[in-house]
Write a structure and sequence with these properties.
It is built from six helices and ten strands. It is α/β, with parallel strands linked by helices and 258 residues long. The strands form two sheets. The chain has a five-stranded mixed β-sheet with strand order 3-2-1-4-5, with helices on both faces. A five-stranded mixed β-sheet has the order 8-7-6-9-10, sandwiched between helices. α1 packs across α2. The radius of gyration is 19 Å and the shape is globular. The mean pLDDT is 92.
Amino acid sequence: MFLAIDAGNSNIVFGFYDENQRKWIHEFRINTQKGISVLKLEKDIHLFFLENDIKTDEILYVGISSVVPEINSVIQQFCKEYLEKDCYLISGRSYSKLKVSTARPNEIGSDLMCNVAAAYEKFQTGCIIVDFGTALTFTVIGNDGKILGVNIVPGLKTAIKSLFTNTSKLPEVELKMPQSALGKNTIHSIQAGILYGYTGLVKGMLETIQQEVGHQCRVIATGGLSSILTTLKDSFELVDRNLTLEGIRLITLKNIQP
C-alpha cells in the first residue's frame, strides 16, 4: 500500500492506494494546524486505522506534498515513529525525472506539480487543471509537458470567510449551490453571489486561457470543493478528487525507485 500525505492550508489529507487493486481505497483528513503535534496526529489517525483495518506494516511507501513548511518536520517525525517508515518529501529537486517540467521548480507549489504530473501522465497532451482548494488555481500544461503558467484566485471558502469577516451583518453561510441566481434572503443572496459568481469566473478564465494558448486543452477539475459548482459539470472532461494524491504517488516512486 502507498500512503500519500497532502498537507494543504486547510486540510492534511491521507490517501491510501492499494497496489493490487490499483486504486485509492481510503481517505482521511484533518484540519491543518500549524502548531499540530506528533501525538495529535498519532491519536487522530490511530482510530482511523482501527476502523478501516489498516496495519502499518501494509504501507510500503510514504510520499508527502506540503505547502505548509511549518508542519513538515512533525509529519516526518510521525511517519518515522508511528508508521516506522522513512517518507519522501517532494521538493523542487523532485521533478527532473518527470515527463513534465517547470522553469521555476522552487516557486511552484508541490501540490500543483503533483496535479500536473498526474494529469499529463493520464492524457499526454496539453491540459488545464482547475484545483478547488483554499485557493482556486488554474495550472496550464503545454502539449510538450512544460508548464505554461498558473493563475491563482481566492477559493470558495476563502471568499465566503472574507465576506463574513469583513462585514458586520453578513453571516458565514454553507457552501451550497442555490437553485436561483437571484437571492431571496441574506443567506441565499450570499450563496448565489459567490457560487454563481465563481461559475462565471471559472468559465471566463477557461475561455481566456484557451484563447491565449491557441489550441484546445483537456480540462480537469480536482480539490475537495470540485463538486460544489454543479453548474460547471459540462466544463470539465474529468473531475478527479484524487489527482493530487496520484501525483504524490507518481513523483515519489519516480524518485525512490531505481
